[in-house]
From TrEMBL:
Any one GO biological process: GPI anchor biosynthetic process
InterPro entries: PIG-V/Gpi18
Pathway, per record: Glycolipid biosynthesis; glycosylphosphatidylinositol-anchor biosynthesis
Keyword Ion transport: no
Subcellular location: Endoplasmic reticulum membrane
Annotated membrane topology: Multi-pass membrane protein
Stated name of the protein: GPI mannosyltransferase 2
Coiled coil: none
Membrane-crossing segments per the record: 21-39, 69-89, 101-120, 132-153, 165-185, 191-216, 317-335, 430-454, 475-497
Organism: Papaver somniferum
The keyword Isomerase is annotated on this UniProt entry: no
Function: Mannosyltransferase involved in glycosylphosphatidylinositol-anchor biosynthesis.
GO cellular component: endoplasmic reticulum membrane; mannosyltransferase complex
Length: 500
């Protein structure tokens, strides 16, 4: 009876905390949309060509030739479609017509196309088809952000084992410096939803749905395929333990094969889209007519290694410097705190610490972490199975339930300290992922996109939350940085001025 009551309480706590962060996320999106509307009404856009929309190269019978009932509203929505949003809307309406459109992955246009022809289809005669496409894009991305914020919080509770730190980090995510892109027709929201959701389900033992979500993240943005690294990290460590501890080579081989197959599924949408582009743009052409990338054995994304290091690009490096500095500090702090874990890639971690590593063992006591995910307050579940902690409970009734977050029983019923800060062993895969992305953004890509490129990386917010808790003055700097970029981004980006 007590077991059912405890599980019910955990579920209630999970729902309550999720509702809190959902409200914060909703407030942040309302703020962004209000700022966009304000700046659009006060300032004239730098480029007013957003409303221009030539006919599709192929016939589009769905587009009505009749004037909409409310043309001003439709024109206002069309005018708000700027920068990459123009391409996503064009692809949703006309498909991939030109070579440059293949730089934009198909998931967002597909979702926009479906929504515009189903749920929002009755609005076409009222505001026009292109305005409906734009409205669909805004709706999809803002709803996706709300869901990604919930996933971010639940993931943070699993990794940090501290509901307060997780909530603070989630608030930072809701008001992150790249917020304008999460409320515009860009892929940041969908990518974050499927990446964070995939990691959450991976840690919860839902391997199938995790692979599906990771694959969708790869269909939204090219760097979504990097999420296969979490699968590989888990598979390699499990196979290592199978050989070293269990002496079962067969199990190790099967684990590696399973990880490889799941990784291939994650890469499938990315490879399929590349093949689709190659088929449309390269097949049937003689060598002299082919674009250089058609002849390349391996496609190369970005501008090239160090090719962006030019004096005229200094303003762009300055624009990206805050996020890159934060990423560097978060990585350096983790390496300094856990050098033995980082340089051994976790292979030299003690068995006690591995029992606490959610990324390695999503189920078992390795599986009691399934209960941790629903709430930071999971001590009652631990007490039921561990007599040592049960006795300690009787001796100190005045202790709050949340205080037991500092300990977890190991397989030998020993009480093991559970790191609830940024130095947790479970943070390692996320730090490695952030290090790779930061290096790529700085040395290979257009560096000004680093702010939005790195904005969905959890360690940035976990480390910031740690700084805010440890050093009070850092809170002012971090919030000032986020507020400045939100105001600057909503002002410049929405009026077609360059911003990241």
């Amino acid at each position: 009876m007590s077991t059912n009551t405890s599980r019910t309480q955990l579920s209630i706590n999970k729902i309550n905390e999720s509702h809190k962060i959902l409200r914060v996320a909703l407030i942040s999106r309302s703020l962004l949309i209000s700022l966009i509307t304000l700046w659009r009404s006060l300032l004239s856009p730098y480029d007013t060509s957003a409303i221009l929309n030539p006919n599709c190269l192929s016939s589009d019978s769905y587009t009505s030739s009749k004037l909409p009932i409310w043309p001003k509203i439709g024109s206002a929505i069309e005018g708000s479609i700027v920068w990459d949003g123009v391409y996503f809307i064009r692809i949703a309406q006309c498909g991939y017509e030109y070579e440059q459109t293949y730089a934009f992955f198909p998931l967002l246009p597909i979702f926009i196309y479906i929504l515009s022809r189903t749920v929002f289809a009755p609005l076409v005669p009222i505001i026009g088809y292109r305005a409906v496409l734009g409205l669909s894009g805004y709706f999809i991305n803002n709803v996706a952000f709300l869901l990604s914020a919930v996933y971010f919080y639940r993931l943070s509770v699993i990794i940090l084992k501290d509901s307060k730190t997780a909530f603070r980090a989630s608030m930072l995510f809701c008001f992150n410096p790249a917020s304008i892109f999460y409320s515009s027709i860009y892929t940041e929201s969908l990518y974050s939803l499927f990446s964070l959701g995939g990691i959450y389900h991976l840690l919860s033992g839902g391997n199938t749905i995790a692979v599906l979500l990771f694959a969708l993240s790869g269909a939204a943005r090219s760097n979504g395929v990097l999420n296969a690294g979490y699968i590989c990290f888990q598979a390699i460590h499990r196979s290592y333990d199978a050989i070293v501890q269990k002496k079962r080579i067969g199990l190790a081989v099967m684990t590696l094969i399973d990880g490889a197959l799941r990784s291939l599924c994650i890469f499938a949408p990315f490879v399929t889209f590349q093949a689709y582009g190659y088929h449309n743009l390269c097949r049937g052409l003689v060598s002299d007519e082919m674009r250089p990338w058609c002849k390349a054995r391996v496609p190369f994304l970005g501008v090239g290694f160090l090719k962006y290091f030019q004096l005229k690009q200094l303003p762009n490096f300055l624009l990206a410097s805050p996020i890159l500095s934060l990423a560097l500090c978060s990585i350096a702090h983790y390496v300094k705190s856990r050098p033995e874990i980082v340089f051994s890639l976790d292979f030299r971690a003690s068995d006690k610490e591995k029992n606490l590593a959610a990324i390695l063992y999503p189920s078992g006591v390795k599986g009691r972490l399934n209960d941790i995910q629903v709430s930071a307050n999971f001590s009652s579940e631990v007490l039921k199975e561990n007599p040592t902690l049960k006795q300690r409970k009787k001796m100190g009734k005045e202790r709050t339930l949340s205080s037991s977050l500092d300990t977890i029983p190991s397989e030998n019923d020993e009480v093991v300290p559970a790191k609830s800060d940024y130095a947790s062993i479970s943070v390692l895969p996320f730090v490695l992922h952030l290090a790779f992305m930061s290096t790529t953004a700085f040395f290979v890509m257009h560096v000004q996109v680093a702010t939005r490129f790195l904005s969905s990386s959890p360690p940035l917010y976990w480390f910031s939350s740690y700084l805010m808790a440890s050093y009070g003055r850092c809170a002012y700097v971090i919030w000032a940085y986020s507020a400045a970029y939100i105001l600057l981004g909503s002002l410049l980006f929405s009026n077609f001025y360059p911003f990241t």
